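Encode chain A's predicted structure.
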Amino acid sequence: MKTLIKLEEVALVFLSIYLFFALNYVWWWFPVLFFVPDLSMIGYLINLKVGASAYNFIHHKAVSISLYLLGSFTQLPVLQLTGLVMFGHSSFDRALGFQLQQTEKLPQ
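Encoded structure for chain A:
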């Protein structure tokens, strides 16, 4: 079952790439921005709880889908791009086995 879930996440990465090409950006923007969501791990320099919360927010698929849809409804391609990059990156992380972080048991 784990393999099937990982394959699904890989398919979602390809979906984000496909939707990216529907936008009016040059192709190299996607790979340049692909790892920008990992900058959310800078929160770990403050403490574990802030780092995990920042990571979870940026890597939450509902946030990325909401940004993409908001960009679609408001005709703001930069929001669509942001949502697609976040969505593709989050799916890529999950395909590699990374999950959202638990914050309940972390020290303040």
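The CA atoms of residues 39 and 55 lie 9 Å apart.
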